[in-house]
Design brief:
MetI-like fold, two-stranded antiparallel ribbon
Length: 307
């Protein structure tokens, strides 16, 4: 009798048995997230996918006409889109190694139990707690050519007034440095958690074998935090390819389109120029590109972790 009740209380799914009450409770807890996900993620994706095949204008959404793949053909003849892609690619290949190295070095320093460890941990993490908008506005004021603190310090030391965000050769490099500084604290904590999970016995065994600090790092630390490396690299790549807030607030994509990125370009076309159809087409192609890059890197890293 009890066995029959248990069977009625359970449900089989993909060959496994699950308790109905536990499934109901789980769905109840996740329902708010599912609703918000559908409203703010799934539905916008579906709508954007549909607009990509139309001539939709933000002010004339009641006059939408289907144009097939003509919006996609514009992508290959748009010189500004190519500039935005090159700038984004340059940002990614520069900021990811820079931020990765900075966050790992900070994690290694804090893991060595230095004095004032808690203070430095908070000091390195505080930039992460600030929103990108606030950070961007702060640095924009510091780098102001006429009244900025950095120029004031340089001029007091005898240097000439410098151009920063208004210089096409410097603007993107400055955004790269600021972005690496702002996000390194978060990645530092992830690396630090990975370092804390390494058994001390491995270091002791390596030290007994005569391994110096570099060899212990190379043969013990790096292999043990490979899964952490995979997670950090993938999250940093996704975040770097989505660069938007800093160019929006600090440079508006300028000067001379030197800080125009893919995310800002999509925003510019869809919101500022109201060309929803074209911006949706670019967003769709860019999303497919990011998905392919992310899956490829994840597959490579996961394969490397199993060796």
């Amino acid at each position: 009798m009890n066995q029959a009740k248990i069977q009625r209380a359970n449900i089989r799914f993909f060959g496994k048995s699950y308790n109905k009450s536990e499934i109901f409770a789980g769905l109840l807890f996740t329902l708010p997230v599912l609703i918000l996900g559908v409203i703010f993620i799934i539905l916008p994706i579906i709508v954007s996918l549909g607009y990509a095949f139309t001539d939709a204008n933000l002010l004339k959404l009641d006059q939408v006409q289907i144009v097939g793949f003509s919006q996609f053909s514009r992508i290959f003849s748009d010189p500004l889109l190519l500039i935005a892609f090159k700038n984004t690619l340059r940002f990614v290949v520069t900021v990811v190694p820079l931020q990765l190295t900075l966050s790992l070095v900070l994690a290694l320093i804090l893991n060595s139990r230095i004095k004032l460890n808690t203070f430095f941990r908070w000091a390195f993490f505080i930039p992460v707690m600030l929103s990108l908008a606030i950070t961007s506005m702060l640095w924009m004021n510091l780098l102001n050519e006429e009244s900025g603190l950095i120029n004031s310090i340089l001029m007091s030391l005898g240097f000439d007034e410098q151009t920063f965000l208004s210089n096409p050769d410097r603007a993107l490099n400055i955004i790269i440095i600021i972005s690496a500084w702002q996000g390194a604290g978060y990645q530092m904590l992830i690396f630090l958690s990975g370092l804390k999970n390494i058994p001390s016995s491995l270091y002791e065994a390596a030290e007994i074998d005569g391994a110096n600090s570099f060899n212990r790092f190379k043969h013990v630390t790096l292999p043990m935090i490979k899964p952490t490396f995979s997670f950090v690299i993938i999250t940093m790549l996704i975040g770097a390819f989505r660069l938007f807030t800093q160019p929006l607030i600090m440079t508006k994509g300028g000067p001379l389109d030197s800080t125009m990125t893919m995310s800002y370009y999509i925003y510019q076309q869809g919101i500022m120029f109201r060309d929803v159809g074209y911006s949706s087409a670019v967003a769709l192609i860019y999303t497919i590109f990011l998905a392919a890059i992310t899956l490829t890197i994840r597959k490579v890293l996961d394969k490397d972790n199993t060796v």
